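Example 3.2
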Amino acid sequence: MKKHRLSLIVLLALIACGAALAVLPARWIMAAVPASWPLAVVDANGTIWSGSATIAIGPPSRRRSLPDPLDWRLSLVGGPKLHLAHPWLGGPLIVSAGWRGVGISAQTLRLPASALGTLDARVAAVDPGGDLSIKWPATFIGAAKRPSGTVLLDAQWRNAVSALTPIRPLGDYDLALKQAAENRIDVVLSTRNGPLMLTGAGALEGGNRFSFEGTAQADPAAGSEIHAALRDLLAALGPRRNNQTLLRFR
């Protein structure tokens, strides 16, 4: 009899927890996101189970709110799954939880290049424009190690422009993130084409230590008018050495 009563109490407790989760206000998420993260929830509606939120990206001093809300829906069919939707996403982003870790579905994110200004004050100063596309394969975050060389993310900046130069466009650029040694992700920046040449390499180590070094310069084959038109832009990006602007981010 005592065993039956205990089981009944546990069942009622689980039902109560489930009911509480279903109506838990979505605004609780605002307090749950750490202040150090490069995003923040500035407003939320609905419940933890199903709702929407206005998201701001970038560090606290340079955050910008996205113009459209992020919608979510939590499903338990086939295991816990969080379905995320936003106009900038190519389709639903699905985050699934399991005993061994968290799975993230492959997806593409398209956004205005002005979002790059949230990364660093120097980038914000050049007022970047153009088309930014970020895509990633299906990945799993957990105990299993990813093989070295695994592509984690590809970012493409197309038809790049800046308010500091009349040149339109400046070029097309690629940024790739690849798994390196354990707890290290390599970052490589390259130029596909254009009069402004950007190159560099860096690493994200331990999940929070980022370092990057590269160069920016006018195409040596370009005419003197191109070099003159890029002078202010290059000066805003960093110090000069041997006709190149040094790009250093920590």
